[in-house]
Amino acid sequence: MKFLALSNDSIVEFKQDKSQGDINKKKTSLEKNLKIKFVLYFIISFIFLLLFFWYYTSMFGAIYRNTQLHLLKDSLISFALGLIFPFVIYLFPGLFRISALSEPEDKRKCLYNFSKFLQLF
Do 60 and 16 touch, CB atoms closer than 8 A? Predict the structure, then answer.
């Protein structure tokens, strides 16, 4: 998993390569390798996540039969909030930056700095 997830070494090696011989070919080869590595990483991670999640859920449901409905409901609520919450968080700084672009010069800097402040949270 570590080999598939980390790509810093190959990118740094490409940047430090001083030879000028066919850079475009090396670039396309690097992009192709990185795409394959990332796709494999996400597929394997997703399979492991599903396997362990369903094993944990089935064992919990087998032991605590009366809480199966609550577990399913809470899991779905948590999943939905996990998908929606980041959009809400990053929406506000983006709105202030968009409005900073359309405002006059004196308000522009203030709105941009306020959006940077909101981004910290």
Answer: no
